[in-house]
């Protein structure tokens, strides 16, 4: 009996790898993690394509002490489907460690992640600094701003992952992220971020409806990026090749 952590990639039901699809088909129970990110398709699309009933796994199910997923994996083959790559989010690493401690065999099947897919912007992946998340509730949160400050001091790019709550249909947008950074800048007055800062807004990367927009913070605030999922990048020092590629998205 095994627990399969299966990455679904970034867009829809067809982004799963062949290894991932074969694993899903032999599993007795299939869960879909439904809180760290979302795909550009419905659960029903996945069920039809995989030929399997899928159980939505909210945060409380994945992180609970009396864990249904782990208990099932002791006696059955179980799949946990995860948008992107399965071990990018720390919550999944925690579940993996718990499964190992309970003697459950684990199989990791990787897929594309936003962490690498942002390479489409032209920004070089090895020049990104620490990645940070901006939460939906951010009134007294300053960590993302501080991460930006540290990354810029090293001339590195900063990727902001934007929070979401699919259960309540709440999604942080690129516009929200810009307003958040402007608010913290006003409070701290450290001249890290302004309306003139060069930004890269990315929506639904990897899908047919993906949007990439490069411009100043003020320009991007006026742009409608559409439905989730969004992420946001502030470049550090640019190589001339990066500058040339970014012009494609202006």
Overview in brief:
This protein is of the alpha/beta class and 250 residues long. Helix content is 32%, strand content 21%.
Any key phrases for this structure?
single chain; 250 residues; alpha/beta; Cobalt-precorrin-4 Transmethylase, domain 1; Methyltransferase, Cobalt-precorrin-4 Transmethylase, Domain 2; 2 domains; 5-stranded mixed beta sheet; 32% helix; 21% strand; elongated
Walk me through what this model shows.
This protein has helices at 18-25, 43-50, 59-63, 68-73, 90-101, 114-117, 143-153, 174-188, 217-221, 240-246, and strands at 2-7, 29-33, 55-57, 78-82, 105-109, 132-134, 158-162, 164-165, 170-171, 198-203, 211-216, 230-234. With 250 residues, it is an alpha/beta fold. The chain has 2 domains: 2-112, Tetrapyrrole methylase, N-terminal domain (Cobalt-precorrin-4 Transmethylase, domain 1); 115-249, Methyltransferase, Cobalt-precorrin-4 Transmethylase, Domain 2, CATH 3.30.950. The protein has a 5-stranded parallel sheet with strand order 3-2-4-1-5, sandwiched between helices. It starts with a strand and ends with a helix. The mean pLDDT is 96.
- Roughly what is the average pLDDT, rounded to an integer? 96
Order of helices and strands: EHEHEHHEHEHEHEEEHEEHEH
Beta percentage is 15-25%
Q: Biggest sheet: strands, sense, closure?
A: 5 strands, parallel
Distance between the termini: 51 Å
The 3D shape can be described as: elongated
* Count, helices: 10
Strand order of the largest sheet: 3-2-4-1-5
Low-confidence stretches: none
How would you classify the helix and strand content by structural class? alpha/beta
What is the CA-atom radius of gyration, in angstroms? 19 Å
CATH class of the largest domain: Alpha Beta
Give the count of structural domains.
2
What is the CATH third-level topology name of the largest domain? Methyltransferase, Cobalt-precorrin-4 Transmethylase, Domain 2
By DSSP, the count of extended strands is 12
Oligomeric organization of the protein chains? single chain
So, the CATH homologous superfamily of the largest domain? Tetrapyrrole methylase, C-terminal domain
CATH architecture of the largest domain: 2-Layer Sandwich
Helical fraction: 25-40%
């Amino acid at each position: 009996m095994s627990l399969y952590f299966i990455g679904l990639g970034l867009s829809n039901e067809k982004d799963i790898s062949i290894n991932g699809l074969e694993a899903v088909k032999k599993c007795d129970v299939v869960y879909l993690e439904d809180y760290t990110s979302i795909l550009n398709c419905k659960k029903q699309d996945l069920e039809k394509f995989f030929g399997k009933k899928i159980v939505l796994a909210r945060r409380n199910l994945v992180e609970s002490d009396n864990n249904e997923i782990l208990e099932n994996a002791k006696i059955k083959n179980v799949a946990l489907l995860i948008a992107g790559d399965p071990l990018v989010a720390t919550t999944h690493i925690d579940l993996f460690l718990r499964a190992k401690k309970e003697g459950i065999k684990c199989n990791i099947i990787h897929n594309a992640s936003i962490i690498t897919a942002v390479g489409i912007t032209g920004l070089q992946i090895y020049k990104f600094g620490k990645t940070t998340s901006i939460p939906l509730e951010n009134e007294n949160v300053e960590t993302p701003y501080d991460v930006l400050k540290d990354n810029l001091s090293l001339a590195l790019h900063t990727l902001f992952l934007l929070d979401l709550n699919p259960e309540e249909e709440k999604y942080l947008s690129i516009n929200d992220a810009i307003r958040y950074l402007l608010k913290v800048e006003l409070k701290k007055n450290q001249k890290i971020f302004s309306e003139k800062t060069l930004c890269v807004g990315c929506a639904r990367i990897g899908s047919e409806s993906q949007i990439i927009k490069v411009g100043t913070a003020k320009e991007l605030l006026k742009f409608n990026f559409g439905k989730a999922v969004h992420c946001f990048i502030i470049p550090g020092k640019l190589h001339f090749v990066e500058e040339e590629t970014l012009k494609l998205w202006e």
